[in-house]
Automatic annotation (TrEMBL):
Residues 1-13 have a biased composition (Basic residues). Residues 14-31 have a biased composition (Low complexity). The keyword Coiled coil does not apply. InterPro entries: ZF_HD_homeobox_Cys/His_dimer. Residues 38-87 form the ZF-HD dimerization-type domain. Keywords: Metal-binding, Zinc, Zinc-finger. One of its GO terms (molecular function) is zinc ion binding. It comes from Cardamine amara subsp. amara. Residues 1-32 are annotated as: Disordered. The keyword Zinc applies. PANTHER family: MINI ZINC FINGER PROTEIN 1, ZINC-FINGER HOMEODOMAIN PROTEIN 2. This is Mini zinc finger protein 1.
Length: 101
């Protein structure tokens, strides 16, 4: 009798340039769920005078509804979403049957 097993793999990426690849065999099925959060603002407000100063905004909050221009602007600091550090949480769920021994 073959038992199906389920395996969950979780990965957190703090760098938006990091990519991951998952491979599956034909005898298994998998699904991946990614949750993207934008956290602290990293815009340097003193760059034009040669300094470094951030505003202290800790998390992106959309200023408008999804699909509008304001959805990409932070309600807390007024910066574009791209200035906020991106965190990606990925969860992969695989179901597989072990080979016959």
């Amino acid at each position: 009798m073959m038992k199906k097993r389920q395996m969950v793999i979780k990965q957190r990426s703090r760098n938006s340039n990091t990519s991951s690849s998952w491979t599956t065999t034909s005898s298994s099925s998998s699904s991946a769920i990614s949750n993207i959060r934008y956290v602290e603002c990293q815009k340097n407000h003193a760059a034009n005078i040669g300094g470094y100063a951030v505003d202290g905004c800790r998390e992106f909050m959309a200023a408008g509804d999804e699909g509008t221009v304001d959805a990409l602007r932070c309600a807390a600091c007024g910066c574009h979403r791209n200035f906020h550090r991106k965190e990606v949480d990925t969860e992969v769920v695989c179901e597989y049957s072990p080979p016959n021994a």
